[in-house]
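Worked example 4.2. Below are the chains of a multi-component assembly; read each line carefully before continuing.
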Amino acid sequence: MEPLSWPMIFAKMAVQFWPVWLALIVTVALSLQFRRRLGLYGKLFDSNVGMTGFVIVMFWVFTALFADMIITFDPIAQLSGLKNVVPGTPVPDSDQWYLLGGDHLARDVFSRVVMGARRVLTIAPAATVIAFMVGITLGLPAGYFGGKLDTGLSFIANLVLAFPVILLFYLLVTPEIRSTGVPIALAAVLFLFPVIFVSVLLNSRYFTTPARRNLYVGVALVLGLWAYSGLAFNADPTGIWSMDPNLLNVFVSVVFVNAPTVFRIVRGIVMDLKSRDYVAAGQTRGEGAWYIMLWEILPNARGPLIVDFCLRIGYTTILLGTLGFFGLGVSPESPDWGSTIDDGRRLLSIYPHPAVVPALALMSLVLGLNLLADGLREESMRD
Amino acid sequence: MLPFLLRRVGVMILTALTLSFVVFCLTNLAPNLEKLARTEGSVRMSDEAVDSWIINNGHGGLMITRYGQWLGVVPGWTRTDDKGVTRGRCITEGVTAEEAPRFCGILQGDWGTSTVFREPVAKTISDKLASTGWLMLWVMLVMVPVSLIIGVMSGMREGSRTDRVLSTFAIATTATPEYVSGVILVVIFASATTGISPLLAEWGWIDGRTLFLGTATSAIDQITFWNFALPVMTIALYGIGYIARMTRASMTEVMTQQYIRTARLKGVAFHQVILKHALRNALIAPFTVIMLQFPWLLNGVVIVETLFNYKGFGWTLVQAAGNNDIQLLLACSVVAVFVVLVTQLISDIGYVFLNPRIRLS
Amino acid sequence: MTDWDPSKPILEIENLSISFFTRAREIPAVMDFSCTVMPGESMGLVGESGCGKSTVALAVMRDLGTNGRITSGSIKFKGRDLTHMTEEELRHIRGSEIAMIYQEPMASLNPAMRVGDQLAEVPMIHQGMTRDAALKLARQIIADVRLPDPDRILRAYPHQLSGGQQQRIVIAMALMAKPALLILDEPTTALDVTVEAGIVDLVKDLGTKYGTSMLFISHNLGLILDVCDRLCVMYSGEAVETGNVVEVFDKMRHPYTQALFRSIPLPGADKNSSPLIAIPGNFPLPHERPKGCNFGPRCDYFRDGLCNAGEVPMDAVPGHDRHATRCLRWREIDWDAPPKVGKVTEKLPRGRLVLKMEDLRKYYEVSAGAFGGGAEKVVKANESLSFEAHENETLAIVGESGCGKSTFAKVLMGLETATSGSIMLFDENVQDTPIQARNTDTVSKLQMVFQNPFDTLNPSMSVGRQIIRALEIFQKGSSDAERSDMMLNLLDMVKLPRAFAERMPRQLSGGQKQRVGIARAFAGGAKVVVADEPVSALDVSVQAAVTDLLMDIQRENHTTLLFISHDLSIVRYLSDRVMVMYLGHVVELGTTDQVFAPPYHPYTEALLSAVPIADTRVKKRRIVLEGDIPSAMNPPPGCPFQTRCRWKTRVPGNLCDTVLPPVQVLAGGHQIKCHLSTEELAAMEPVISMAAE
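Applying the procedure described above to all three chains together yields the following structure tokens:
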């Protein structure tokens, strides 16, 4: 077979992405159809910036979802003779090409980048969600009660924030530290917050009708603690919840780095919102502090929090890339974008493609998230 | 003002102590020490030998006392072995146990010895910091003016074409971490096979094979535009986007303030409104942001120094961490944390100073 | 400007239409607006929020922002059309020929620039003056606006001045270039009443002194009467009536103007015998304006087929001084017919004692320096408060900012605990019981209605849900269905459609939100309700309706109402007893009649004089207090009011400076905290008198 020219490479790739295009068209068409009924999400489609961002982000989300259908080769298979080959090189004994060339171990760059999307798009949002739970659960009381609690928590948050991230990673994500159990201890603390958050959320709302409260909080606790035991201690008897220790270490560190910033944001918003009359109305009818924080204040802080959530997923993606770039906490096989860039950079000036492709992928995803956040911010400030 | 300053410095010292202790713990974890023993002693040491090596070299005992020794507030350890030779933390070659000082921690200026570079840590750190200082200096010189100008230009007329173009640029750069922009810049400007260099070489516009150099190793000896531009740009790009966006946000907010309308409606010309009324108020927020950028700049430094092989502070940190050089890693961490804390302090004081509303109340 | 003839109008607005353009549609903000201001004349623009009065002002300044555009008409200033001027030409007019004064003085001054520089800038731009000369002029103008110590003020930053001083600086800035036209956009709304009075006096005097024409924008009819020669009433983007102030006030020829006057509490109105008449319905949103007369749907004189047929033009009223009205039926309406009085009600008898406060004190400790550290300072927010409140009674608590009324409410509600003293609620001592420790019954009996309608409801929870939550927490109803029913009944009670249960607060108008707030407060069958300025943020026409609703519910539930307000007109209208507070002290306490008639506490006297009254028959003695209200952080020694009291000289010795006055109990249990002798007090003259018809 002939090597492919650049237009042909793009054409082939476009065909390969067909499930993504289909899903994107359906999503955008449906959203445009019903946008007037979809609140802030619907309004996103009024802003070019927001819509561009949304489409880019959804492109990668769908890529991650349908990765198995898109890839042309096994991302860790090494085919002889295809080391560092240029994009569009035909693969012997098959009717396929290495669309974006081969890397230094003769693996298919295209398939690795597609699979890398799946990895990035599972870890980054999940870690961000946990970081938000931690930040919110601690930021609410710090902002609401103020005083010594606030001083203490803020001091701790500032401690973490005073660490240059890279240094923290070098200290926290090492094979040595894994054997000391520090990551598990951290996970035990950090993963507890979502369980606490949901239980308190439900309890404060339903404590007036004990029967319903017991049901909701009970279900939340059972599900939460089940997942908790599996994720933090790898002790889930059914084995549904579990996490590779390597991954756990990375995951916990990323949460640990992000949580203090969320804490500071939440604390700031709460300090602003707590002087509102509806908060005073809650207090004067004798509501508990947690009800006021979680049901009166938090929903009204959602605007800035959603915006920050998008930005933070992007930031977390960058952090994960940084970890990969320094080879921290990832297995060499992993198609992780960061580590692929690291692998590729050694021969960068001779064979640029193995590093440039994941670099562009990472950049476009973060760009999409930033644009999305910008669009959301703009639209939520209107009216 | 003075009580504020004292309190702020107090908090800073407390933070520094806590953080250095945490770092001390994390670098002196049992597995790290074990690894150290095997590299310093011999790889084939038995577990018992490792344990005794650790104890004999003063790495045993309570973490807090070891920290105290390192800091220089607890007397350094001494140990007399079976042969009657007294060794100790403060006993160096050519000094007898009696002459040796009791305390020798960082407060006394003793940072220990690097196992990778085989020289005093203090020397390594100061050399490398100097190299990184040049990098930082150039980054600041590029980043601060460019980002402020972009931010102010796009913020002064929100929604204009200039604003859209500049904002898109700013968003794009914040989406490009150093390890991505570095790669792209090298491919475009410093690759012999791709980008613009082959073209330029073909046309005979450049002498060498590439326009810029792909490494900055030679910049340690002499900084030139061709070996330093790419590393500086790589770090600066990300910061430019971030600071420009902050400046823009601050500027647009100021531009909607009533006092800007007051100024406009008293007949002040637009450029004077910007220069006399808006700028000072709009630059308070970015100032703090620039100062708080330092932790991230440090990140960029580490990535860029690794990517461009520039042997500065960041490169040293990677070496120290990769080779389990405990003393050096510890020193790097403390310096990094110290830099961050000092910039935070400057940012706080600067904020108060720039803002007459706080300064004079 | 040499070709301008001083006998011609200084400002002539003709058929001005302004629209704002959003992504979705064009929103007309002002339609077919015309008005003329002659040299030296002051023109009032009055109307409710959203009627377009500020838009007119900004259009004159040609500062409508990026979305606003003048779609037709002309604005002629000294004969030159402003609508066709270039930015450069406008720049020479702004600040030198036309100057503007805004609502928020703090926001309109640059926080990072010294006051002197901000003032000097004006003549430096327009007259090319040197900095020294400009500063000298600034110093002189600062003295003109009656600020003490001009040199210190020149060097000060805006935040170092009080609100009243800041507004004087803004006025000084406007006067720096001796403009021909001054536009004042609600210049006193953000200020306390006694401070407002000083500013109003100043504006009037300076207008005369410099011969400046004024365009005075306000929602307050009383202020317009004080300041203006002519006025223009606006409704929903249109001028509906314009003319000489006295003629429009006394012989109005537009139904909206009439309805407006009937809905504001003027002296003589009484909640039982002659209640206010609220304007029915709501202010139309700009894109939902009706065809024909905008006021049609709310008008008593509306006639189908006539009023909603087509555009209504302005029609001159013959025989009057440039008086015109936008009404088709004004010739047919009998303008002298007495209003259809609503339901007249009996005054309820005073019931049992429900709330008794004795010698309540609330002190706060705050650190003095902005950076912490320094000596701890004690702020005495409430000082020896004693009073009783009975069932069916409305007790008004009156005072300006910093008087401690909000702290008092917090202590009563249990959000803070008292430093000393006792609070008896029903038969329970609650002074030391924070709200978490009070039982549900006590909490539900004592509820609060808040001031700001935009803040009182949680923006992200539906109206019904918020009321149901109150029912849940008060343990009312045994099932969701029952509570839902109770919620709908509460909506009925506050006269809101049941469909509102599903709405989100942002879909409601200010008055409707306030009604939901009232429904929520009464969810647990409240017996004592603290209403913290419940209507002060509402438009006048809505105020009457909400006030009436509160009165109705009070009558039905035999509620005790503690009505906190700074507005003496409404207090006089609805309260049975009045408590006047100043800097944490109760300075006067008595029945409404006692407090509103001499003898007064000197502060009450000044307060009464300061409140603008929109009635041409009322004659007031003008008492303008010097200076601002002292900070509660740093109260004066002796009598709290001594720094501003005009009677201080009548008290022998330096008693006022050193000794806190005792409470004098006069006839009928009327209490006054003052050193003045009984004779002096008895000799006081009334502040307000009605001129004979």
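Take a moment to check your reading of the output against the notes. The mean pLDDT of chain A is 87. The first helix of chain A runs from residue 6 to 16.
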